[in-house]
Design goal:
90 residues; mainly alpha; DNA polymerase, domain 1; 5 helices; BAF; DNA binding; BAF_sf; DNA-binding; nucleus
């Protein structure tokens, strides 16, 4: 199921290079600060975590929750965006 937010549409249709982690759907300023503490400040860092987990949505979703304190809705939005971005670009 695809999100229909403008943030989601923009994210999955554009290059990721240089985008801050807060450009990723589901990641706002608070979660972005938590991810920064984990060493992830760019959207590409989240992509790396998704790829390291073999593009496994369940594993990545759980990692997002543990690493940032995201709730289920936020983690699902982030996971869906990474899945669609990789489907469109890799």
């Amino acid at each position: 199921m695809s999100s229909s937010t403008q943030k989601h549409r923009n994210f999955v249709s554009e290059p990721m290079a240089g985008k801050p982690v807060t450009a990723v759907p589901g990641i706002g300023p608070t979660l972005g600060r938590e991810l920064n503490r984990e060493g992830i400040s760019k959207a590409s860092g989240l992509l790396g975590q998704y790829l390291v987990r073999n593009q496994d949505p369940q594993s990545f979703n759980q990692w997002v929750k543990r690493s940032s304190g995201a709730n289920g809705h936020q983690a699902n939005a982030c996971t869906q965006a990474m899945k669609e971005w990789t489907d469109n670009n890799l």
